[in-house]
Specification:
This protein is mostly beta strands. The chain has no helices and 7 strands.
Length: 93
């Protein structure tokens, strides 16, 4: 039997070739759960490579080599937005 790559303490590295869908999103399964990663509608139909190392993901345009996105997957959220909500500054008084 193969070792389980999701066991704690074991690195999980993989490379995947895919296409950005019409909504500008690519899907990725992690620990049995499907996640949707926003890339942007500008890139719909673009052939991409996903370089996955545990929760760290780099998304590259497979044709040009341009890095389209780097992120750390939040395993508790289905959708991984392009710009995660940042803490809003306090309103000035």
């Amino acid at each position: 039997a193969s070792p389980d790559p999701t066991q704690p303490g074991r690195p999980h590295d993989r490379v995947r070739l895919d296409h950005v869908d019409t909504q500008g999103v690519v899907t990725l399964r992690h620990a049995g759960r499907l996640h949707h990663i926003g890339i942007g509608r500008t890139y719909k139909g673009t052939c991409i490579k996903l370089l996955i190392q545990d929760l760290d993901i780099t998304i590259i345009n497979a044709t040009t080599g341009e890095i389209l996105r780097e992120l750390t997957l939040d395993p508790h959220k289905d959708y991984q937005p392009i710009d995660p909500k940042k803490k809003k500054p306090e309103p000035s008084q």
